[in-house]
Amino acid sequence: MSMALKQWFLIAASLLAGIAWAEDVPEDIEALLREAAQDDARMAALAEKGSPTATGGGLHGFAQFELARTTSRPVHWSKMLGRIELGSTGRLGDGLKWKLSARADYDAVYTVTDHFPAAVADDQRFNLMLRENYLDFGAGDWDFRIGRQHVIWGEMVGLFFADVVSARDMREFILPEFNIMRIPQWAARAEYFSGDFHGELLWVPVPSYDETGKPGAEFFPKQPEYPGYAIRYANEQKPSRRPANGNYGLRGGWLKDGWDIAAFYYRSTDAAPTFYRSVDAVAGVIEYEARHDRISQWGGTLAKDLGSMVLKAEAVYTRGRGLTVLRLNDDDGLARQNTLDWVAGLDFVLPAETRLNLQFFQSLVTNARDPDLLQEKRENGYSVLVNGKLRPGLEAEVLWVASLNRSDWMLRPKLSWKFEKDWRLVVGADVFHGPTLGYFGRYSAQDRVYTELRYSY
Prior knowledge:
By secondary structure, the chain is mainly beta. The protein has a domain at 1-138. The chain has 5 helices and 27 strands. Strand 17 (294-305) and strand 18 (309-319) form a beta hairpin. Helix 1 (3-21) packs antiparallel against helix 2.
């Protein structure tokens, strides 16, 4: 078998196996990547001899160690995580490109301490997952990508708005870097380019969903509690793998006079869970069950370089999602509400290699608001990020995100030191404050200090 056909077989087998099983990692992924790397070396040797058949880019990725200690009582170690991600890219003949990548995480805090429940330890101790694994090819003005991939339709500072396609690992809330949090989707994507226009068609036959962890985890999204009732969480119910539960969308973008504008529609089984509630008044038990609503979303993004600053904005209108209501006599504890979430931000480049980012955001209930809804008709907030170089290789950053409706905020200072080529050391803190049911206040007992050491290759 030729090297090109062999590599094609390996890649296609990985893609088809992942789609069919909808699992994060086939058991033989390490062997697959190892054999692909060996083929890369052989193809590189052929390329040096002038063979045009195939080329590979070798292995690349990063290794990282993360340590965190929760400072709220009881003080305890909350993370001792080792993480390695590796991948490879290359070409097969003319116009066909591929990428393979995987990541493994092991958190020793669940082995050396007994602070967390067994279910949490089992869920978060070890994770092995496929990252991006796809094939790229083109035809005229069309580009196609088939396989597990990131589809990023929006990106603001600190929070998610128009990035509606990605699933996310929320087991550390929104604290990790977004490229760590995002979970790729198994998808077929077609992109069309013509002049200033960029069109996109997307089909996700077997969606991935957010990872939210287990009850008792540091950042599990606990639901409202009521005096006199015990709280119980049922196992999450994920949709079956059938076409009706797949996702699809389209997006169009235009670049005109420096304005980068895009609009999209996305029909999906929501990657984020909705917690359905049932009440057993006789037994005095409230049970929550995480399910995934079928939703529709319309949205848009814009960006404009204004010289001394950059303007960015995103908006998403969502229909079909259930939002929590507090009255106990409601059948499922939810009200179907339509929401408009939008954000506008300015990014300034200041003297002394300093960056300032300011954002204002709002979540608006657009239909008649249920009077017992947990959130208000208009939820307003803002964020401030300041980043600057203290000296070559050393950066300081502070991110502040807060609600304008109540005293509910998050503060994230950190120092980042690139002390050698390909090496980075980060030290920082995450501080939360607010009411028990606040977006940040619910984690007020999870204040922590942390450090990260990364080597990229």
